[in-house]
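User: I'm curious whether this sequence folds into something compact or stays loose and floppy. Could you predict its structure so I can see for myself?
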Amino acid sequence: MKEFSVTLAPRFYETDALGHINNASIAAWFEVVRIRYLESLMDADPGAARDWMLASIQIDFVAETFYGKDVVAKITGAEVGNSSLNILCELYQEDRLTVRGKSVLVYMDTAAKSSVRIPDSLREMIASG
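Assistant: Here's the prediction. I'll summarize afterward.
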């Protein structure tokens, strides 16, 4: 898998009472990174993420993340199942790991509202990109 990263600029309103980036903001940042990753696989197709539903998210807070310094979000792994995709992501601030997360996405037939097997063409894109 090629390295994929996005640089995020924390905004003041994303902080909590202690000056840390709020946990809800971290979950939102993971969403931004997941969508940009999926779009990158499909040549920036803005609809690339619409067929994926979030089934699970796990967030491990390793260190504090603060306002005022950019955060680099890296996709560190993508594991394809039958209809699911596990995406591993890490956040770094000043080259220090601050957050680690895992998201499970399910590939959907949105008209039928049911999961379907991830197409082979998309599997190849995930494996190579």
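Summary: The chain is about 20% helix and 40% strand. The mean pLDDT is 92.
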